[in-house]
């Protein structure tokens, strides 16, 4: 047993780790049935683990609880577990009691478990007392005779109990010597059958390891893989027994079983393949994939035979000499005959892959200094996969084709690319859509990159996707002339069918005659000849060419290799072809790298073998069943047609040798096979009490079931299965759901994308399900929301109903602190978002799925900004005195340059492979320096030095780009005193020498020209360079608030596009209007400013566009001012960043107003006529109506009453100028009052007030000067707190009013204007918190100062509480609630602390004392606050600027609930003790917080 994936370190560790086995078993019981086979099971377990290097350290059999516990603890205390690995094997009865799981000892009583049996978590704690660093617990419990029928549920509970014990053991276990638990694995087994079962776990484990040894390439077998195989053995034998596995590890998993069938020589060949593989060696996933492509595809094709005999060298490749020489000369000498690209095409089996494979193997004999071609097998791969592969091979990083093309544009070293099987790209059962997408979006643009030479292998039907750009070499044209080569190839296979050194039955003469016959039938198809010759070469006797009719013994070669394959298969399989063909057809339908040799393969084969006509004739006919032995037989019988690979988990999988085989086999299936396969895979998921248990599904099913279900009715079922959505692979799931033909599936795709970063978060399943239900409501997927409630009826919190406008986006993540700076860079083949958090880490996130890619060191000082390079994974972190440049991929420091004093902007670019940093200071001076510091810096001045009085223009924005072989730099300067009316200045430098290769890159730069322009606006918001254009966004034009777009071109050739006066909002970005064009000089667009960042170059003729964010929309405008697109947002945007382009257009990343979260969007279409960018004003409140909670919504159309339980409309009132005003307060009846008349009549107006009720409304006496009527919550009889003013004095008062006309004495709140009121009843009085403004004018000046904001607390009617405090704003976040000790006032201080007062003075002049500071569990800026008592505890509910709600206990800061809404939270109020109404930027949500 050793570490999976550990490599050389794991092998070395194997020799030094001390392995110990503790075996415990009980077969004889006093109070429960005996287990007579216990001794045999322990014997097998000791033998099995002994063979893996474990020695028996303790053995306990048939002991009572006391003896078992004492011996386990004695063993633990005497054991020094340093550097050791311990396996505990326990077998016996198990039981559940009082919510705990118990292991029964000899004297245990099922009715008195707590005192007579060992609690399962205690066993884990005892083992951890040994100090062992690696622990594997194998617990095999029998529940026979104890009334248990569901072994899977028992195994799950057992596994959970073992993990719980490990958690407690970590906290309380022995910690001397600094030991820690690095590996913890559990195999929990439960039996629910007769006690004398002939099948025990140890024997099943031995059988599983023997079965898995069929793999030659997989070195280690993971615990999960072995347990899956054990369960398969149980199912096949009809045994009601289930095993569950759980592994926790640091790094690689130590507890993996060594595969006895592993053959190191199967991983790589000798000679040229081994050398080439070594040169391709990489540690990243793309490097490993390229090496796998070489060993499993290109090398076998180039040698002319697959790898079935490890260690045998040589080659069977014949012919194609002219083509190889011509292509080799083209690659080596830049022969212009074929331009930059060549497409090798032809029918299946004609030798396309063989030609490209041989060309690749030829490169292995070159010198080590010559880079090997980048060879990519496109089978079942997507555009994004090819981008990542090319980027990794080229030593650059890019997540999109645009970024990749930009990174390669300035490359001078040749890059030779081989892309084979382009027609096989995409899903296994898809069409050529993905192949054409790859050709159009990636391969055709690559043909325009000077350093690239591209070879593509594909079938003819995809060639037209290239639009005639590359040359075409059609191998079908040489079919007739290649007969001798085909015959030579067939003769070699007849005489040595399994590689050089193997022997066939043919002598030279016989081989020559039969080979000629095969060649004549193959008609130029090497693959057809290979199939037939290989079959005859493996026959026990040769075809006797002297016998009459010997031609009939030569297999018929069909018109295609696929037909030949099927004919030969029938000869090979004979009578067993009925058994073999479905197994092979299953491989033809496989997605990803292939099928594992387990029940997944067998299930698909059974679906393929089903005869629909027989099913119609005899309903209920079961599909043919396949056993593991059938797979082993197939691998042995026709293994030459199969290829073994390793999947993403390192497990062996199998696929067919050639796509022609898959095409032919799929042709034998009926149209219903696809649906049957999808349902068969779904049937492999274990059934639980509430439906399929997707977490226990085979890995292949979780990864690829959505792809198999595409186009079937099962996809809609999966889209509405919340547990499946929580466990399936997100990327494949979203790809399939987005293409779905039904709205329910597309709605599910929106919901999954909305919370993609949270679905697989390390939280409990219930919380993730609740988050999915919330996202379903927010995305308009009501059917999915209902399915989540049905599957998870007891969620920790829930969304009761919603009234929202869906806004589609993908959550990229949330941050622990605010973000000081952000930029996008290409990293790990993706577009990465680099964020520098306040007082936190610098991290890089994947902009597609929100995955954390890297974390950079944070000991650099206070970071003020982040700048990114468009073509390299370089991020510049700016501090007060230095600019640090890091490689995001390797996390290495590239260098640091001094930051000029008063630096205002910075940019990073690639200059001949060097990292060039440009910094702009306030004086308008640009400093250019390499990050390595290898050359003196170069300075550029935007204006002559003058006296300080005249140097009034300050540097503002900086942009850097490559254009026509030059480095172009642009800066803007703005006047220091904008009220002087001076227009902003633009200065552009063109520097020659940017494309020259030199160790002193900066030293080769010379200023070729310097251009100046005066802009129309006075303030610059964004600056970008796009080809020959400088694009600027300004406002505050000299002529006033003039709105427009101007484009000018001067005689010097510089074109300036200026957007001025548009409502830009807080975030702005300038980026190209369409896809990429690449020139030899590099990327053509670099934008600058805190909100404008690097972007890719546009296509010819495409100009820049300006994207601006207003309150709740992002709008794109072209250079002529035309609106190109608009996207709704659910929160104000502070930063916009480009993240490449996809099928849906431009992709954007936005950061929230306080930069606490990031989201990925696509730019939408232009708005309809008359559509505005921002939403109309909406006011939301809560209250009661006829005794039930309601939500009150006021907008331009009027006022609606919504039922708090369902969201249904109870009543409505149209908006009228003379209509009543609506007053609400949580927990109080909704009150209507007369609107105030014009100001001059207010002092005499009598205002009427009444309750909004379905019954006859209760009216209150009319009140003079009433400005607000606040209904009192929780009162025995309805009433309201009247806020009215005496206009003679300008003071405002509050007083209680009741329907019977009683009016208590008014209380002076010492305010001249009221902004908000919150009330809490407190016995016979009501406590009121009033926020407003107060005039403080002492007559010392002629003009009165503006009123100051204040908060006042008063009690009415007694006036015993009088407290006031001065505020910085009337928008203070505060609440008046009730805690166990009484009314509590909570508010957020200016430094973000939560202050709470529960004691108030009786006089405005009395010292109030200091408030209590309540610690918060986070530092997110609070936008709303509510205090409440829940279950007798004081709690705080906060709405954060990150769009999240946090409910925590005020006495312990324990987080009770954390809910990510994503959008801006405008307000929130309780409907009752559990239900909460949340007003967001997209609508209203009603949540229930249990």
UniProtKB/TrEMBL annotation:
It comes from the Bacteria. Gene3D superfamilies: 3.40.50.1460, P-loop containing nucleotide triphosphate hydrolases (3.40.50.300), YVTN repeat-like/Quinoprotein amine dehydrogenase (2.130.10.10). This is Peptidase C14 caspase catalytic subunit p20. Residues 1073-1100, 1165-1185 are annotated as: Disordered.
């Amino acid at each position: 047993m050793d570490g999976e994936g550990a490599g050389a370190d794991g092998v070395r560790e194997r020799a030094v780790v001390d392995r110990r086995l503790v075996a415990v078993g009980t077969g004889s019981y006093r109070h429960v049935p005996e287990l007579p086979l216990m001794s045999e099971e322990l014997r097998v377990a000791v033998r099995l683990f002994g063979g893996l290097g474990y020695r028996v350290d303790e053995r306990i059999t048939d002991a009572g609880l006391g003896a078992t516990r004492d011996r386990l603890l004695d063993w633990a205390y005497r054991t020094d577990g340093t550097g050791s690995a311990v396996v505990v094997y326990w077998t016996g009865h198990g039981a559940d009691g009082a919510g705990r799981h118990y292991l029964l000892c000899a004297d245990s009583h099922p009715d008195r478990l707590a005192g007579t049996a060992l609690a399962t978590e205690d066993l884990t704690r005892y083992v951890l007392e040994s100090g062992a660093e690696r622990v594997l617990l194998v617990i095999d419990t029998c529940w026979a005779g104890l009334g248990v029928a569901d072994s899977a549920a028992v195994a799950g509970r057992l596994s959970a109990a073992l993990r719980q014990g490990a958690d407690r053991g970590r906290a309380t276990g022995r910690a001397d010597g600094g030991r820690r638990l690095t590996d913890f694995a559990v195999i929990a087994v439960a039996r629910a059958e007769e006690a004398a079962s002939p099948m025990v776990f140890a024997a099943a484990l031995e059988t599983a390891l023997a079965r898995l040894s069929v793999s030659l390439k997989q070195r280690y077998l993971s615990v999960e893989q072995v347990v899956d195989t054990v369960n398969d053995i149980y199912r096949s034998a009809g045994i009601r027994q289930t095993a569950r596995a759980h592994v926790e590890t640091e790094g690689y998993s130590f507890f993996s079983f060594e595969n006895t069938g592993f053959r190191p020589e199967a991983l790589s060949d000798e000679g040229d393949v081994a050398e080439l593989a070594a040169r391709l060696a990489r540690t990243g996933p793309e490097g490993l994939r390229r090496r796998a492509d070489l060993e499993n595809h290109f090398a076998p094709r180039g040698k002319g035979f697959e790898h079935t005999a490890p260690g045998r060298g040589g080659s069977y490749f014949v012919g194609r000499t002219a083509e190889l020489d011509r292509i080799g000369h083209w690659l080596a000498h830049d022969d212009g005959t074929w331009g930059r690209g060549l497409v090798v095409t032809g029918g299946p089996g004609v030798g396309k892959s063989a030609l490209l494979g041989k060309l690749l193997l030829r490169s292995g004999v070159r010198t080590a200094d010559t880079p090997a071609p980048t060879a990519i097998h496109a089978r079942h791969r997507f555009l994004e996969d090819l981008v990542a592969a090319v980027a990794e091979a080229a030593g650059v990083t890019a997540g999109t084709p645009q970024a990749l093309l930009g990174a390669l544009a300035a490359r001078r070293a040749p890059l030779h690319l081989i892309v084979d099987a382009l027609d096989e790209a995409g899903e296994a059962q898809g069409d050529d859509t993905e192949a054409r997408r790859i050709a159009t979006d990636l391969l055709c643009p690559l043909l325009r990159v000077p350093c690239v030479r591209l070879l593509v292998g594909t079938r003819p039907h995809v060639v037209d996707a290239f639009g005639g750009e590359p040359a075409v070499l059609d191998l079908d044209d040489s079919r007739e002339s290649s007969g001798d080569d085909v015959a030579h190839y067939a003769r070699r296979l007849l005489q040595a069918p399994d590689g050089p050194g193997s022997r066939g039955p043919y002598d030279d003469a016989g081989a020559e005659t039969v080979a000629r016959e095969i060649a004549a039938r193959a008609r130029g198809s090497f693959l057809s000849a290979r199939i037939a010759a290989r079959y005859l070469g493996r026959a026990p006797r040769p075809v006797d060419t002297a016998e009459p009719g010997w031609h009939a013994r030569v297999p018929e070669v069909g018109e295609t290799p696929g037909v030949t394959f099927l004919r030969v298969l029938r000869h090979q399989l004979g009578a067993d072809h009925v058994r073999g063909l479905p197994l092979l057809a299953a491989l033809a339908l496989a997605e990803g790298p292939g099928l594992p040799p387990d029940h997944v393969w067998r299930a698909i084969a059974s679906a393929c073998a089903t005869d629909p006509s027989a099913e119609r004739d005899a309903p209920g006919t079961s599909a043919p069943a396949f056993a593991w032995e059938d797979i082993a037989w197939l691998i042995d019988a026709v293994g030459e047609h199969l290829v073994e690979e390793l999947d993403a988990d390192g497990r062996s999988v199998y696929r067919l040798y050639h796509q022609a085989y898959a095409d032919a086999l799929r042709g034998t299936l009926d149209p219903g096979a696809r649906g049957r396969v999808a349902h068969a895979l779904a049937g492999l998921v274990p059934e639980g009490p509430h439906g399929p248990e997707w977490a226990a599904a085979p890995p292949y099913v979780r990864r690829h079931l959505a792809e198999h279900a595409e186009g079937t009715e099962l996809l809609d079922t999966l889209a509405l299965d919340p547990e499946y959505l929580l466990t399936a692979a997100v990327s494949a799931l979203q790809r399939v759901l987005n293409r779905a033909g039904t709205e329910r599936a597309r709605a599910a795709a929106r919901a999954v994308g909305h919370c993609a970063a949270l679905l697989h978060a390390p939280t409990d399943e219930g919380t993730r399900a609740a988050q999915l239900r919330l996202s379903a409501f927010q995305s308009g997927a009501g059917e999915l929301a209902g399915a989540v409630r049905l599957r998870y009826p007891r969620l920790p919190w829930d969304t009761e109903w919603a009234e929202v406008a869906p806004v589609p986006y993908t959550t990229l993540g949330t941050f622990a602190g605010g973000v000081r700076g952000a930029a996008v860079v290409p990293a790990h083949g993706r577009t990465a978002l680099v964020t520098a958090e306040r007082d936190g880490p610098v991290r890089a996130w994947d902009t597609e799925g929100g995955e954390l890619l890297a974390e950079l060191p944070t000991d650099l000082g206070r970071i003020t900004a982040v700048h990114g390079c468009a073509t390299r994974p370089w991020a510049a972190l700016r501090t007060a005195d230095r600019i640090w440049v890091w490689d995001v991929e390797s996390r290495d420091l590239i260098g640091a340059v001094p930051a000029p004093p008063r630096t205002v902007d910075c940019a990073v670019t690639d200059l001949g492979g060097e990292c060039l940093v440009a910094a702009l200071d306030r004086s308008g001076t640009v400093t250019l320096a390499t990050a390595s510091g290898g050359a003196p810096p170069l300075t550029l001045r935007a204006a002559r030095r003058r006296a300080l009085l005249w140097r009034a223009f300050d540097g503002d924005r900086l942009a850097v780009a490559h254009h026509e072989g030059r480095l172009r730099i642009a800066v803007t300067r703005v006047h220091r005193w904008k009220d002087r009316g001076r227009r902003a200045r633009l200065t552009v430098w063109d520097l020659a020498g940017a494309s020259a290769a030199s160790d002193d890159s900066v030293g080769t730069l010379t200023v070729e020209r310097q251009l100046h322009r005066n802009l129309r606006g006075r303030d610059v918001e964004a600056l970008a360079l796009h080809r020959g254009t400088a694009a600027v966004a300004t406002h505050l034009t000299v002529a006033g608030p003039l709105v427009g777009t101007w484009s000018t071109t001067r005689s010097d050739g510089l074109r300036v596009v200026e957007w001025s006066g548009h409502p830009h909002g807080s975030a702005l970005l300038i980026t190209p209007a369409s896809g990429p064009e690449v020139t030899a000089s590099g990327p053509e667009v670099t934008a600058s400013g805190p909100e404008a960042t690097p972007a890719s170059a546009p296509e010819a003729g495409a100009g820049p566009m300006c994207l601006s964010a207003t309150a709740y929309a992002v709008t794109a405008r072209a250079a002529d001012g035309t609106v190109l697109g608009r996207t709704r947002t659910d929160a104000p945007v502070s930063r916009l960043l480009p993240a490449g382009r996809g099928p849906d257009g431009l992709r954007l990343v936005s950061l929230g107003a306080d930069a606490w979260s990031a989201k990925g969007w696509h730019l939408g279409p232009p708005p309809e006529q008359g559509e505005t960018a921002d939403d109309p004003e909406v006011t939301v409140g809560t209250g009661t109506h006829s005794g039930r909670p309601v939500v009150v919504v006021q907008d331009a159309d009027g006022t609606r009453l919504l039922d708090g339980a369902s969201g249904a409309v109870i009543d409505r009132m149209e908006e009228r100028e003379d209509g009543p005003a609506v007053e609400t307060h949580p927990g109080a009846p909704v009150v209507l009052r007369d609107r105030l008349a014009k100001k001059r009549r207010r002092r005499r107006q009598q205002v009427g007030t009444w309750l909004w009720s379905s019954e006859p409304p209760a009216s209150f006496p009319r009140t003079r000067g009433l400005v607000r009527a606040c209904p009192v919550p929780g009162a025995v009889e309805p009433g309201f707190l009247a806020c009215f003013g005496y206009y003679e004095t300008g003071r405002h008062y509050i007083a209680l009013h009741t329907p019977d006309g009683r009016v208590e004495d008014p209380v002076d709140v010492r305010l001249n204007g009221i902004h908000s009121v919150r009330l809490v009843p407190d016995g016979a009085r009501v406590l009121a918190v009033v926020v407003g403004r107060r005039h403080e004018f002492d007559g010392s000046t002629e003009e009165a100062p503006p009123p100051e904001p204040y908060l006042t607390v008063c009690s009415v009617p007694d006036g015993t509480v009088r407290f006031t405090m001065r505020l910085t704003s009337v928008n203070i976040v505060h609440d008046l609630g009730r805690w166990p000790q009484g009314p509590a006032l909570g508010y957020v201080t200016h430094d973000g602390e939560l202050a709470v007062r529960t004691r108030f003075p009786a006089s405005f002049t009395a010292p109030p004392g200091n408030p209590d500071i309540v610690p918060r569990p986070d530092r997110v800026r609070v936008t709303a606050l509510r205090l409440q008592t829940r279950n007798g505890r004081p709690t705080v509910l906060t709405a954060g600027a990150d769009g999240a709600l946090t409910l925590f206990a005020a006495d312990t800061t324990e987080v009770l609930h954390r809910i990510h809404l994503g959008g801006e939270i405008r307000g929130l109020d309780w409907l009752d003790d559990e239900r909460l109404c949340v007003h967001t930027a997209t609508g209203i949500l009603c949540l229930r917080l249990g």
